[in-house]
């Protein structure tokens, strides 16, 4: 395969491998409590989410608004949402539970979740 179709298959495979690695990491016991981390402001959260959407998922900057629906407005699919979740976990050094991630459909839902975890120090299961 060549061209965009081959690149699409490679990207999909890479995302699936990341998901599998995430499941493996969760199965391993973590013996240390998470370290105390600095608080993050709402503006910092918005800026980092915006950057991840643009750089990792190639969403046009002009499409990203505080009220955006990820699927309807930004054209993301379920694999994109998984990739977004994993990129944000890495960016913020925290974990978003699968149950939490499944509920995220819009930017307000994502920002509320991240703000709760980051400004109130609730970064459960930090790696």
Q: Which key phrases capture this entry?
A:
single chain; mainly alpha; 5 helices; 57% helix; globular
Can you describe this structure in just a few lines?
The protein has 127 residues and is an all-alpha fold. Helix content is 57%, strand content 0%.
What does this structure look like?
The chain has helices at residues 3-27, 42-55, 78-92, 98-103, 107-119. It is 57% helix and 0% strand. The relative contact order is 0.16. The protein has a domain at 38-119: Non-ribosomal Peptide Synthetase Peptidyl Carrier Protein, Chain A, CATH 1.10.1200. It contains 5 helices and no strands. It has 127 residues and is an all-alpha fold.
CATH architecture of the domain at 38-119: Orthogonal Bundle
Query: Which CATH class of the domain at 38-119 is shown?
Result: Mainly Alpha
Order of helices and strands: HHHHH
Distinct helical segment count:
5
Q: What do we call the CATH topology of the domain at 38-119?
A: Non-ribosomal Peptide Synthetase Peptidyl Carrier Protein, Chain A
Mind telling me the C-alpha Rg?
15 Å
Structural class: mainly alpha
The average pLDDT score comes to 82
**Helix content class:** 55-70%
End-to-end distance, in Å?
Answer: 37 Å
The geometry reads as globular
Strand content: under 5%
The main pleated sheet reads as: none
């Amino acid at each position: 395969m060549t061209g965009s179709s081959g690149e699409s298959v490679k990207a999909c495979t890479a995302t699936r491998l990341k998901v599998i690695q995430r499941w493996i990491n969760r199965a391993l016991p973590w013996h240390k409590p998470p370290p105390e981390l600095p608080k993050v402001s709402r503006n910092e959260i918005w800026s980092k989410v915006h950057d991840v959407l643009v750089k990792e998922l190639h969403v046009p900057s002009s499409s990203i608004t505080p009220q955006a629906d990820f699927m309807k407005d930004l054209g993301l699919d379920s694999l994109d949402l998984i990739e977004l979740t994993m990129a944000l976990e890495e960016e913020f050094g925290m974990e978003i539970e699968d149950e939490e991630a499944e509920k995220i459909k819009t930017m307000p839902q994502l920002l509320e979740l991240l703000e709760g975890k980051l400004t109130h120090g609730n970064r459960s299961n930090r790696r």
